[in-house]
Amino acid sequence: xxxxxxxxxxxxxxxxxxxxxxxxEIEVEIELLSKEQLxxxxxxxxxKALALDTVSGEREDDEIxxxxxxxxxxxxxxx
Amino acid sequence: xxxxxxxxxILLDYYENIRREKYPESVDVFEFLKNKDFAxxxxxxxxxxxxxxxxDLSVRYPNLTKNQKLKIVHNMIKEILSxxxxxxxxxxIEIDYEDIEDSLIIHTAKAIDGIVLTRDNKLLKKYPDIxxxxxxxxxxxxxxxxxxxxxxxxxxxxYYMHYGIEKNIDKVINKSNFILGVEVKELExxxxxxxxxxxxxxxxxxxxxxxxxxxxxxxxxxxxxYWSRGDLIITTPFTFTATGDTILRSGATPxxxxxxxxxxxxxxxxxxxxxxVYGKRVVGIVPVHLYGLPCNMDExxxxxxxxxxxxxxxCAQAFGSMYKGKKVGSFGDAGAFSFFPTKNxxxFGDAGAxxxxxxxxxxxxxxxxxxxxxxxxxxxxIGYKARIDTIQAAVLLEKIKYIDEFNQRRRKIxxxxxxxxxxxxxxxxxxxxxEDYYHTFHQFTIFVKNNKRDxxxxxxxxxxxxxxxxxxxxLHKMKVFEGRCxxxxxxENSEKASEGVLSLPIEPLMEQEELxxxxxxxxxxxxxxx
Lengths: 79, 530
What we know:
The structure holds 2 protein chains of 2 kinds. Chain A is α+β, with helices and mostly antiparallel strands.
């Protein structure tokens, strides 16, 4: 469906919208997903787009690394 | 090309759009290094990649499950490892406790004589000799002066196939089966299958492969430990000394017969003439498949059959070479192969093999390589300590997987040389008699006319290009063969060859720029040398 899009950071807009340039608002064709649609099949298909869309570049590498280690080991090895 | 270990920040830059915009050099260098055989990821970086990207996904997509995030991260890592090889962190590192993570990657790079490619300014400042930024790295390729071009780059070849080699060596160390371990039998089977013979015996060198073959034939044919001095074995004088000295060590006398001036292999017509003169004194022929070009085996075998002579093929430079679609080493009574490190199939030290279809010879050679008996405390023959080491067999088991690919690369390089140098006057390029001869170019050897060989070699050296003379002295002119050989007629072709041949670099993994550089330098020299 055709919608107007403003610059946002939350949500499930896939693929990554590149058309903004210096504009705050543009018109795009999108597919809206529900939370349920962000399923394993979707992740398998679009893993790269999801990976590319992270935002760590806004912070310094060192800042991230210690926080990352703490979070990961707690989540991965926790219940 | 220096081995390059890519730091984690470059990898993360490639897999995030914001970082790609912020650090475009990271993207450029990642693309440049994709699938290059000198690009690595340190094993110590892999779990860091996992938890950092997992964290980034957690921040960006709070509703993704743990398993979904792991799936994305693991797909990313698998993709990275499809582009680059893993380099291990060695056990002998000195850990820098101020930054353990950094010291791991630095030592990984040092262990493979490489550099670290990183955006980390701390690392770049602390280790300026071993770290490079993406920008400087790419600049260094643009402004690259050609490094020294060796005949062969064994380190580069080793790292091309290092996974399997490392794995195989670790197995041998863990089992400590250093003498005639299972790897030896496995290698022998693989060699026999590849060459097309019933049997193969792993020995300690190509020289010992020749010697044990000749000794075994003396035992089989004459029921003697050694040949007699009156027994003549025909061979070429234009070869490595081992061809001739093993004949001497087997008890016989080498009868040197001249080579064909085009192929540098033994002239089969001269063999026929020599036999007319020397008659029954001649007991065998050792043809050498020089530089990787097979001899005319139809003629050699016909002569041998007609005169009841044995044939031991000297295949030291010809693993994979073929005559009429059949591998050399499968024609004669035995084939002697060398796996000296610089050979087309080379070990990490001395090694060799004998191939044969003759069960008796096979059993004899197996005995001769272990002091001469089936039972080491009750031996039958005068033997040697001539086993192939298990660890060399382990290395060769991996390297043999690449032999056809590498031989094909050599042939492509030879094609390039031939195309590029065909117009240079006073150069004679390698001659291949027909499509019956599958040359594997262990050496790419040109002939420089008008006594200009040494000048050309000097000029190449000044341009950082290695070249070698194989061989500067034919065997009949060596002191060791004085009074110990027979010479049939003139050996003019061998002598002429030794005065003019020059072998050029032929490394299977060499870059096209290096080849282009060599060809240009030789073409440029055309003007002032000739």
